[in-house]
Design goal:
heterodimer, A: mainly beta, Immunoglobulin-like, 4-stranded antiparallel beta sheet, 9 strands, globular, B: alpha/beta, 8-stranded mixed beta sheet, two-stranded antiparallel ribbon
Chain lengths: 77, 497
């Protein structure tokens, strides 16, 4: 059991292993800690394809909710 | 006609019967893979509406004892009306999203998934109060089955399938189940003999065999789920994945989970599933036995969905998406107990007792651990969510402008309720508990015992403090209804023991 925050300058839908898991931030633009089981997962964003990399496959370590693991996408345009 | 010619005629008849009766594969190949069709969670619940209260039921093995006990739970939920925050009153049974079952519990689960509450009476007549055991034996001994039993593609389990299909499941297939497009999603669990792993009858699992579950009879899945070793032969499926499986792509979670540096339990799950494709040439046939050998309470499949993204109906995904607010797992565990007389005498228990313990003891211990696994997981989730709140409060106490860097976690209420005979802990219930724990594992129980099991399920549900907590979260005004056990039924059911 682990928690992940997905960092991107805009609010975006997050896909984990090709399934939608809601948005990366809440209505107040705060990062949402997403529940994820520890291990390898593939993250990507919805919306405009103006981010890099196109997908990130990372080994999510087991971390507590108060110190979530960060997955970072950068804006390309 | 001489004896010789009569014998020749019978032999010829036998050969003809054998040839005519050569069966097509019970699980046909998948012509084209398509995630939008087949018996999958998302196709049973296309809109995923009304998932706010997500209820999972797990039914254990234990023959008619388990079937009646889990049926008592269904009856109780059908009678449990509550007022949701919006909309008309509803029953908790209407909220049941998934039923996962093994062995005896699979009869109840599958019948309800097929026929709903309208089929309750039929289930009582056609299964619970019927001597299924006797009919199985009668069919196995019938002369017309002798030649069939000599065929390599026909065995004792096919006799069971025929009986269950005729009298309980009325010819239904997984296509019949899918056509209803409504809850509950049914997980009938068997055990893969080679892997020793759980095998569920869903299209997601059949994809790995490149096979179509649609035409598979529900009776066959239930028979596999309840194919107790030796008494019934294993059920054999064809694995077609040595050939090209048109359009099939394994789910991404499965590809990722095969990476060896994953947590060991995740790797093990992925390897078991992938073995059907990776070793397809060496495994053209898959032999299935009683689901109780891998998990005798049907809770391992739900646990995977409850604890990660590695399931077609991941609860993590539903929580992250804000769809789920209450998760309630109710386990109907009809496990038996040890004979209290063993330790009263110097002489060691006999061979029947020893064999009984060897076959059921490890399963019971594993079931206990599985229930604890789910309960501990729920506690950890609750603790994590509460720690965010506590941190937020401490921060604000020190500095009114303090703001947590992350969003508040979703408010989700988790409860795991186990109904088992050993929950009858009061001294006055001791005799009743011993009576229940001493009931036979058979497909025929005396009618009073069946009625007693139904009443006990309701009694235990209404007495459960954990269930009351869950209900108060769902409907704050809810209070448990009285659920007495009729002393006359207890006397009738337990007198003969």
């Amino acid at each position: 059991m682990s928690y992940v925050v997905v960092k991107f300058p805009e609010r975006r839908e997050v896909f984990i292993d090709n399934r939608s898991e809601g948005d990366n931030v809440d209505a107040d633009s705060r990062l949402r800690p997403l529940l994820v089981n520890a291990g390898w997962h593939t993250f990507r964003l919805g919306g405009l394809p103006n981010f890099a990399p196109a997908a990130l496959t990372v080994d999510v370590p087991e971390v507590p909710m108060l110190a979530p693991f960060a997955v970072v996408f950068t804006k390309t345009v | 006609m001489t004896i010789v010619s009569a014998a020749r005629s019978i032999a010829l008849l036998g050969v003809l019967w054998t040839l005519v009766g050569c069966a097509a594969p019970i699980n046909p190949p998948l012509t084209t893979y398509n995630a939008a069709i087949g018996y999958r969670y998302q196709n049973v619940r296309p809109d995923e509406a009304e998932e706010s209260v997500f209820v999972i039921l797990a039914f254990s093995g234990g023959g008619t004892r388990a079937a009646a006990f889990s049926y008592g739970l269904l009856e109780s939920l059908a009678g449990l009306e509550y007022q949701p925050p919006a909309g008309p009153k509803r029953t908790l049974l209407e909220d049941v999203d998934v039923i996962s079952s093994v062995s005896g519990g699979s009869f109840t689960a599958a019948h309800y998934a097929l026929f709903g509450t309208a089929g309750f009476k039929r289930f009582e007549e056609n299964f619970l109060y019927r001597n299924i055991q006797g009919e199985l034996i009668a069919r196995a001994l019938a002369p017309w089955n002798w030649a069939r039993l000599a065929r390599p593609d026909f065995s004792r389990i096919d006799i069971a399938v025929g009986l269950y299909d005729d009298v309980v499941f009325e010819g239904a297939t997984f296509a019949t189940l899918l056509q209803q497009r409504k809850r509950p999603y049914l997980l009938l669990n068997a055990t893969d003999m080679t892997e020793g792993a759980r095998f569920e009858f869903t299209q997601d699992q059949f994809d790995l065999l490149c096979s179509d579950i649609s035409d598979v009879k529900v009776a066959r899945a239930v028979a596999a789920s309840s194919a107790f070793p030796v008494l019934l032969s294993p059920l054999t499926l064809r694995n077609y994945s040595d050939k090209e499986c048109k359009g099939y792509e394994p789910p991404l979670w499965l590809k990722n989970a095969l990476e060896p540096t994953n947590p060991p339990r995740r790797v093990q799950l992925a390897r078991n599933l992938w073995s059907y494709r990776e070793n397809a040439k060496d495994r053209p046939f898959i032999h299935l036995l009683d689901g109780g050998l891998a998990d005798n309470i049907g809770l391992r499949g739900p646990y995977i969905a409850l604890s990660g993204q590695d399931s077609a109906w991941s609860i993590y995904t539903k929580i992250n998406s804000g769809k789920v607010r209450h998760v309630l797992v109710i386990i109907a565990n009809a496990k038996t107990g040890r004979d209290p007389a063993w330790d009263k005498t110097e002489s060691a228990p006999g061979i029947v007792s020893v064999l009984g313990l060897v076959t059921t003891g490890p399963m019971g211990n594993y079931s206990f651990e599985t229930v604890q696994l789910v309960a501990d997981h729920f506690q950890r989730l609750t603790n994590d969510f509460q720690s965010w709140k506590a941190c937020n409060e401490i921060g604000r106490d020190q500095c009114p402008l303090f703001r947590m860097p992350t969003a508040p976690p979703p408010e989700v209420d988790f409860h795991a309720v186990e109904l088992a005979f050993d929950k009858l802990v009061n001294d006055r219930d001791r005799d009743l508990r011993l009576c229940l724990e001493g009931m036979a594992t058979s497909f025929h129980l005396p009618p009073a015992q069946v009625t007693l099991l139904r009443q006990v399920a309701r009694h235990l549900l209404m007495a459960s403090e954990e269930f009351a907590k869950a209900m108060r979260g769902i409907a704050p005004a809810w209070t448990p209804a009285p659920a007495p056990i009729d002393p006359a039924i207890v006397s009738a059911a337990c007198a003969r023991q």
